[in-house]
Design brief:
This protein has about 290 residues and is of the alpha/beta class. Helix content is about 40%, strand content about 25%.
Amino acid sequence: MSSKSVAHIDKRQARRAFERSAASYDEVAVLQRETARRMLERLSYIRHQPSVVLDVGAGTGEATAALAKQYRKARILALDFALPMLQQTRKRGSLFRRPRCLCADAEQLPLADQSVDLLFSNAALQWCNNLEQTFNEFLRVLRPNGLLMFSTFGPDTLKELRQSWAEVDGYPHVSPFPDMHDIGDVMLRAGFSDPVVDVDRMQLTYDDVPGLMRDLKALGAHNVTRGRQQGLTGKGRLQAMFSAYEVFRNNGRLPASYEVVYGLAWAPRQRTQDGVTSIPFDSLKQSL
């Protein structure tokens, strides 16, 4: 089995994990809530008034609700591949106008071409196997001069857990995360204009490794790579991993590092396909 296939996300298992975690997600989504807050703050400085907003990987809808408040005149769409997550979004919708919920995969958006003005995605891209296809889909549904803003996790995420498991066996125990530079390259190849990618580093701390693992389980952030070990992990190897993790203890606490990648880009006003430049009719009228 190639390293690429080993790192491939098993979407079916990922969906099941998030379905099971829908009820517990908000209790432990501290980092996801903070990244969403920072993204929304950045959006507040951008002069863009969308008519249609799409939240990709909406989860339980906390960011969806904030987007609805920020863009009160816009139509809000919430998309997630786990139906129970969207059911939580609908419950939260009683506090604001209800979004339209779409249960679908980010790599195959069930939306018409050029139908969205703002595509927002917080901590979801790491569950996509084909970033090329995903960004092509993002660009396809964005209207000319539409805005894409996203966050995802980079390769240094959970590096302590990854290194500690590497001391024990050769199986992947932590899902793969895309590199910031690779993401930027994919955005350019997809045809986005003025892409900006930057990184922030955050850290959560725990009393012990089981505490970290409980939070990851409650989030639905299981290891769902196809090369993962099948079956239960023996107590001996689990204890060996716990011991290996102790080398990172600092001031009585164990760190869990996260490399947060933020991205922003615009859909071009003019699109080129097979050497033909397509100019939106509305922009042509404005120039006459």
